[in-house]
Design goal:
Its cofactor is heme b. One of its GO terms (molecular function) is heme binding. Belongs to the cytochrome b561 family. The protein is mainly alpha-helical. Strands 1-2 form a two-stranded antiparallel sheet. 68% of the residues lie in helices and 3% in strands.
Length: 176
């Protein structure tokens, strides 16, 4: 039995981590720049969200095919259950959040961009739907800060408090 996730799983994990930083940062710092730069920040945000969605679906499909390597020493059942719940929340959040964002952008009925390309939009805007989705998107994005923080704290607790291999299973392999 292997003691680490596959290189592909590790790569996707850390690439999603970097994309989440870029995607969140694009929205957090856009207000510090003149309005004419906002479309560029929005494009970075949307492009990051689409990339996260694709990678999270790929990661989920790979995860369903390849079970997680065992945690050594084996944690208590309650810790295992909480870990599974936490990962379910992460998968749901970073799949649903971009989908809501995409439907929101589409519903506005105006041009929007991803990866430098003009994306399709509704022929008739539905601002009520777009506004509702914007509220959900914002709420879930803020929830994401907490989920990410709890995920990182749990990984550190596994490593330093319970002294198991949870964190090490997701670290890149050292080159020989």
């Amino acid at each position: 039995m292997r003691d680490k996730y596959s290189g592909l799983q590790i790569g996707i994990h850390w690439l999603v981590f970097l994309l989440v930083i870029v995607t969140y940062t694009a929205m957090e710092i856009r207000g510090f720049f003149p309005r004419e730069y906002r479309p560029a920040f929005n494009m970075v945000h949307v492009s990051g969200g689409i990339s996260i969605l694709v990678l999270m679906v790929a990661r989920l499909l790979i995860r369903l095919k390849r079970p997680a390597p065992p945690i050594v020493p084996k944690p208590k059942p309650m810790i295992t259950g909480m870990s599974h719940l936490g990962h379910l929340v992460i998968y749901l959040l970073f799949i649903i959040l971009p989908i809501i964002g995409l439907v929101m952008q589409y519903s506005k009925g105006s041009p929007w961009f991803a990866f430098g390309l003009t994306m399709p939009s509704a022929s008739v805007a539905n601002f009520k739907l777009a506004d509702t989705l914007k509220e959900y998107h914002g709420f879930l994005a803020n929830l994401g800060y907490w989920v990410i923080g709890i995920h990182a704290a749990a990984a550190l607790a596994h490593h330093y408090y319970w002294k198991d291999n949870t964190l090490l299973r997701m670290m890149p392999r050292k080159r020989s």
